[in-house]
Amino acid sequence: EAGVAQSPRYKIIEKRQSVAFWCNPISGHATLYWYQQILGQGPKLLIQFQNNGVVDDSQLPKDRFSAERLKGVDSTLKIQPAKLEDSAVYLCASSLFRGTAETQYFGPGTRLLVL
Amino acid sequence: AQSVTQLGSHVSVSEGALVLLRCNYSSSVPPYLFWYVQYPNQGLQLLLKYTTGATLVKGINGFEAEFKKSETSFHLTKPSAHMSDAAEYFCAVDTGTASKLTFGTGTRLQVTL
User: What does the CA dihedral A94, A95, A99, A103 come to, rounded to 10 degrees?
Assistant: First the structure.
């Protein structure tokens, strides 16, 4: 079974530029998550989708971050414009269902450096 | 709000020695607890999780953790460390709001010869 795929793996941009990340979850997984992992910290949930609908975006900085999950499969996370503090690893995860204690499967992440 | 505290950002053990990584949680409701491992340049992989029932949970790669409600702890152990265990380990709690994980800050495990 293929795992969660993410691209690109690395991205370097200058502040105020825009950037987009792509995620392909495990086939059949209804729930998709985007996390931000800043160096030295644990992952922090940015947004959670159930199929193609947003169920939790309470920690997403909506003035600059946006995400979508068209057709309930692939997802993109965009930052526009980027700030220095956005430098982090962006992890995508998926789970079969949205339920308490449901196992989340993580992709390898996209490492973003904002200069 | 629920939270997780991992004591010790770095732990170093000799190969063959006991591994003990500490995790304490704060929760107003019965928690669901997880340990994830992250190898360099990779995503997180589930080691084990506690939901209900038996408080001693066995996971992959010889790891296990014990849920102790009286101590609000969920420490991760392995009897004998291998070089391949070197990685970052994260404890997480499910907030009870449908698959919303709150992670600790992580513990980097170093295994020396």
Answer: -110
The predicted structure's pLDDT at residue B81: 97
CA–CA distance, B88 with B111 (Å, rounded to integer):
12
List chain B residues with CB under 8 Å of A40.
9, 105-106
The answer to whether the CB of B56 falls within 8 A of the CB of B64 is yes
Quick: pLDDT tens for A21-75.
Answer: 999 999 999 999 999 999 989 999 999 999 989 999 999 999 999 999 988 899 9
**pLDDT tens digits, B60-101:** 999 999 999 999 999 999 999 999 999 999 999 987 666 688
HEC readout, chain B: CCEEEEECCEEEEECCCCEEEEEEEECCCCCEEEEEEECCCCCEEEEEEECCCCCEEECHHHCEEEEEHHHCEEEEEECCCCHHHCEEEEEEEECCCCCCEEECCCEEEEEEC
pLDDT (0 to 100) of residue B97: 63
Whether A106 sits inside 8 A of B96 (CB atoms) is no
Q: Do B92 and A106 touch (CB under 8 A)?
A: no
In A, minimum Cα distance to B35 occurs at: A103
